Amino acid sequence: MAKRICILGAGGHAKVCFDTAVAAGWTVEAVIAPAGDGDPAVFGPCLFTGDEAAAHQRFDRDIPWLIGLGDLAIRRRLAALAGTLGRGLATLTHPSAVVSASARLGDGVLVGPRAVVNASAEVAANAILNSGCIVEHDAKVGANSHIAPGAVILGGAEVGDDVLIGGGAVILPGVSVGHGALVAAGAVVARPLDAGARVAGVPAARITSRGAGR
User: Fold this and answer.
1) What is the pTM of this model?
2) pLDDT tens across 54-67, in order?
């Protein structure tokens, strides 16, 4: 029997989730657009313009959700809501991705096109491994974190919860990134980062603008 899924959100990241689900052979029961947004040309009859509560009532409660929004605060809220409702979170891997048999993926993880998760890596619940990123051997990615396209988490590095690693950024081997940190696009992190740190550049240095790297 085909695997079924509902995707929460109908913006850009939801499109990636939708395409990944279709490519992986899943049946998308609904793309849930609480604000009535979403592109019918992309989502077609799957588009459901109701909120999460309405979707919970409308669709089989055995169908897991995948959170198709990139905002980390919203992702955390929706993951908590799913838990409250007794909904499972789907773990979805694009068929072009490479995931080692010894890697561990938590519930709700998206592994995007051409992403790589190497031996003994660990990725916690509700994280995004976006297109073409690499999580090397023995590295760890925390819950609700987003590794943007082309970013590289090298061997033994550890990324905390609620972290945004910008596109093309590199976390060097064994380096830790604290919870809630932001690493701007293209940065190279060579030293441990405290919780909430915001860094950019090569080598990475502290910045003050939250908008950098998005």
Assistant:
1) 0.92
2) 999 999 989 999 99
